């Protein structure tokens, strides 16, 4: 029977962005041997100094029958690395596992799972909830879906990255559905907070006071505390999570909803607010800048660009 | 200087509904002398057995310069008791305080505050957050607005009723703005959960699993736990808070928003969903039944009426 | 049997605004004896020069058993003139008819019809479709509801004012329902045109070209031609119909819809766009300025204020 | 200089569906030589009896330097016929013109125009407005975009098919933008009519009466007359234009809007109503069945399935 991936096992890592880099660093730290690839090689240098091997082609991260993690920006990036040459899958081969940490559509996961199977590779969807600071602290939440046996094998790796994980069954798309649902819920909470704060402000009750009574009573949880503070203070830069990426996630949500014939009117509305923000040149602001649409529609001044 | 209302002070209590009754009982229990009135006198009998005096006219609950609490269904009921004859205010008179616990519009509170002032009575808006079980346990959240001196005098009474309170300033409408904002946020969270669960269900991920990952990670707070459970299980009866009252609160929110020129698109949408549920005869169901609109629009079966 | 109101019959006229003034002038012109009242008496002077008698109290326009027309800004103005003293109704008395031309809610019409009946007066709801130029040309459309016999008696008067009329049955609210429905349809057409033109503009197709293909093919009717031209040219001032009045009409529509438990999501959305325009200080612009909300949400420049 | 395509010129015709078949028949009738291809060859038999030549491969319809018309269901079908083998383009070659009558996205038209140019072929986007009966009567409206010289050459052909056409400039996507805008405007008009009729019905005013006053006054144009009648009578079967195709067109509109950063809230809402209808199994009903969503949300009975 296949054994668990425990240090000092070799793990391949594809994608060293804001999320991938701290995750790979944490794996190094606990003793894994990390072979990493990133489109822009220079981004990997800090990791190399910590002991990782940087390779120049994606396929070179793979060990036959081993484990490869990927953390990429979107469906297209993921499909390009794994879909185009299939060199990586050929090398990974029978017994290999691909732990796919990106936020992509369930349809993409299902398609990749079938493709991987042709090489004997198991695809595990494993999107994460949390921002770069949570990644650095090993405090992500991870939703996993795919074969249970593969999930058991990668648990030692998951434990390095997360404060908790959920195995959501065999359908490779299930974890993506859960992740898209969470991001949609966050976006909806942001819009709702923006509307409540704006109504308060226009009725003479300060936004910060409204934030305090909301998070001090029935909405005492991280999402409302963190986003509530940013939206109350109208502090939309620098971005912790770019608005253009938020729009992308809501688009994936709406596509998933459409293909399953599920009207999601809140998602449509949030989508339109993100789109308006993008049209106004705020794609690189934090996605909480969605709230500025609500303020402006109430005749309040537009937020200043604080980037420069 | 005016002294605090401490037991065994006489307090008047207007309105012995699902919320008023347990609050009045708690005041009795800690030693207050309670004179109570309810439109339907019979509802007050349990309270009388605990030692309260039931009176037949609202005015009779008042002690000159004393304290009267009211807990009524809506603006119209409040305006009728305090507005029509003004007998109650005449008796309460200079130094008297009216602690108004109902969810009404800020405009109503402002109007009543002016009217009360003509009799030397101080109006304190004091809407509560929490359901009947929280009222019984003395675990309500209370938002107070109006003169600070009056707020200080009623604090001993508040302490009997609540787990926490917030004084939101002198504007008598401020507490109502905060309360409407909270109910709007709850309704929005319910709609968002309904959409996320329905999308999950139609993609093969059980509603209960989606509820678990949501409340087990970033939305670990009472509102999401409680409403998430009911919406995941599609258990909309019996009502803890009637859908028709939820619609009323959203209507007050939209009116307050309109009079301050604040578009609230989420509120408009939630309003339309509540209205559809009412049109289908679900006004007496729990307000979480809003979620059934989302399921039905996705072609899923309508929930069964479980009332009989 | 009661006879028709034909010239030189005396008719009373309440309300000499942009719509009332030309209508009263047309009645004078064909030979009616007109007794008129307006809150601001000075507005009636041109009419006096044409031969009308101006009176200083609303009640003085009425002839026992005669006909009074009213054209007022909103429900409140109508209720004040007819509701407060009831002097006018007392004078009008048995056999009298009140032809109510204002755009008010069906509920107001039903309430007034009952009140009028107590004096033997028949209330006919008769809201008009058309702008001041159509009123001046006697080219209004008029929707009438109330007793058929009364409708027959006033037809000679209607013929002076309109290019066509519809008797919509006995329910005094029916004509108001029809009128609100029409204004809602116009507002929806304006929003739809704004979205289509904005999408075209952002894809390189000029707004005017889009307007041309739309009204040159399947939408070749006055509403699309007139509003399409204004919205294509983004010419929102001076107002032919003030945006604040458009908001009022949509509010009446939503109230009527709510009291009959009818969700109208387009109406909610149009309401929110009107509200945003009002929040930005455009209440006195033409109601087509609704379209500016769509352009601004697409990142296009806000329209200049052309009032000064 | 290239000459106009006049009878008895050979024209190729790709796609003999509800729209393509009557168009091709009209070309035959006035003397063109027609070579036609359809995926399901049997559909072309009536045309063969009228004198057309049916070919078994798309490429066989093309004459070097000649004209090919296509009328296909969607972007995918169009891209498959013209994109896959490119045999058709190779045969058509320098001087050839492809008149593309399908409703596709502007992005698809732009992509195909570039691809065609590599073979010396000119791509003209030429989506049509009108239903099969208008196609049979040669009474379509046609929006054309692409090089002016090519437009001039195909005008003799257009004259056989249409009651009017518009040349919208050189951008091959422009005509598609106009067509999507028109379909969006129709869908919005249908939703608005559905809301107005439902409000009327729930207030005691018959749907048919409301339809009469609307189309008898300011909305006296084909779109409101035709769709108003169907929606007033709630006659949603058989389909003149399938709801699933309406959803497709609104999806293309939203994609075009998103790629140009244009929020279109009416389009989002109409999309959600079409999606709900599809979820309830009404994809093969007429797209006016969108109106049933409005009635059902108002608690009125669901329309009966009249297909069987």
Strand elements of chain A, count: 9
Give the SSE order of chain A as H and E letters: EHEHEEHHEHEEHEHEHHHHHH
Query: Helicity range of the residues of chain A?
Result: 40-55%
How much of the sequence of chain A is in beta strands?
Answer: 5-15%
Kindly report how far apart the N and C termini of chain A lie.
Answer: 57 Å
Multimer state: homotetramer
Number of helices of chain A: 13
Question: Which residue ranges of chain A are poorly predicted, with pLDDT under 50 across at least 5 consecutive positions?
Answer: none
Strand-pairing-aware structural class of chain A: alpha/beta
Coarse morphology of chain A = elongated
Mean pLDDT of chain A: 96
- Largest inter-chain contact set: A-B, 64 and 64 residues
How would you characterize the largest beta sheet of chain A? 6 strands, parallel
What strand order characterises the main sheet of chain A? Answer: 3-2-1-4-5-6
The gyration radius over C-alpha positions of chain A equals 21 Å
């Amino acid at each position: 029977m296949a054994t668990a991936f425990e240090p000092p096992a070799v793990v391949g890592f594809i994608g060293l962005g804001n999320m991938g880099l701290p995750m790979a660093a944490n794996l190094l730290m606990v003793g894994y041997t990390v072979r990493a690839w990133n489109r822009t090689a220079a981004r990997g240098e800090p990791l190399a100094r910590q002991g990782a091997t940087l390779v120049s082609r994606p396929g070179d991260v793979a060990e036959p029958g081993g484990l490869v993690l990927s953390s990429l920006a979107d469906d297209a990036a993921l499909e390009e690395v794994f879909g185009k040459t299939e060199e990586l899958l050929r090398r990974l081969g029978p017994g290999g596992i691909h732990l796919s940490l990106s936020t992509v559509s369930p349809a993409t996961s299902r398609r990749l799972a079938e493709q991987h199977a042709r090489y004997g590779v198991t695809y595990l969807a494993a999107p994460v909830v949390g921002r770069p600071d949570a990644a650095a602290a090993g405090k992500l939440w991870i939703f996993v879906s795919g074969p249970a046996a593969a999930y058991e094998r990668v648990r030692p790796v998951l434990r390095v990255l997360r404060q908790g994980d959920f195995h959501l069954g065999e359908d490779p798309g299930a974890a993506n559905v859960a992740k898209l649902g969470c991001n949609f819920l966050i976006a909806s909470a942001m819009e709702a907070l923006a509307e409540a704060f704006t109504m308060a402000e226009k009725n003479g009750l300060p936004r910060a006071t409204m934030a305090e009574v909301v998070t001090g009573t029935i909405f005492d949880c991280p999402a409302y505390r963190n986003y509530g503070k940013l939206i109350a203070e109208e502090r939309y830069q620098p971005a912790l999570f770019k608005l253009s990426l938020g729009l992308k996630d809501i688009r994936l949500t709406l596509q998933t909803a459409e293909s399953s014939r599920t009207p999601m009117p809140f998602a449509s509305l949030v989508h339109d607010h993100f789109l308006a923000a993008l049209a106004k040149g705020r794609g690189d602001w934090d996605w909480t800048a969605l709230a500025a649409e609500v303020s402006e529609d109430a005749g309040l001044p537009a937020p200043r660009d604080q980037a420069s």
